Amino acid sequence: MTLGIEVKSLQLNYGSFRAIKDVSFTLAGGKIYGLLGRNGSGKTSLLSILASFREQTSGVVAIGGEAPFENAKIMEQVCFIQESGYMQDSTSVADVLRLSESCWPNWDREYAARLIQLYELPLKKRLSALSRGMKSALGVTVGLASRAPVTIFDEAYLGMDAPSRYAFYEELLQDYMETPRTFILSTHLIEEIGTLFEEVLILDQGHLIMHEETDALRSRGATITGPDEVVDRLTEGLTVLGEQQLGRTKSVTVFGELTKEQRKLALAEGIELGPVSLQDLFVHLTKRRGDGQ
Fold this sequence. Notes:
There is one protein chain. By secondary structure, the protein is α/β, with parallel strands linked by helices. The protein has 2 domains: 5-212, Rossmann fold (3-Layer(aba) Sandwich), CATH 3.40.50.300; 221-275, 2-Layer Sandwich (Alpha-Beta Plaits), CATH 3.30.70.2020. It contains 11 helices and 13 strands.
């Protein structure tokens, strides 16, 4: 089962402060989406609305064609996992899993047991006794085992060490292939997890400034490597995101598509053209005055 998401003219105010500003987008069901944004961009506020944790100030939100807020039918089809967690510290790991099983009708007990073993989760321990990494592993376990048609991870894996995070990425991709559903992942670890995203949404100061297929977004930039004089000619007029030089060889990352003439010149001069990283594009698109180089 997959559920699509439609958002129209969404706004959210906290008193006089507007956290979400006229945001609209449509997410088809059954894809992995990346939600990117700097701190304070409105990512968690947006995800909280999708998960029915709060009601929007204005605008329309529909999941599977229905408004999610205070809608039990939709709420049990959405699993929202945050790094900060949502359980009391006195709750045991086993109690968290039992409660989770009662919340999500698609809960997979066997899968949960396998993840518990993978992350070596101590069932009898209270949350207060868990390390940050173990709390993250528990959140990841709940999110994946929920098998909710819309599963949202809001920086939920930040506390895990690198090997555990990579194990999570592999697990998520494998589970997505076996039981397709809609995943939304909010993250700052763009280099690590960006290859999973089929589409990317970028929020900046409450505005949605980009929603594109990941490959199409990457095609907006390029890395250009070769003799410095030729590279300088090729990149003239383009926005340079960064550059490195070793002797006469120069590598420049640019934002902006190369023309046919520029590509023809690159081929003739033996210039190497490569893709630009999603993180470099994100940094450029959200750069603010005063950020420096």
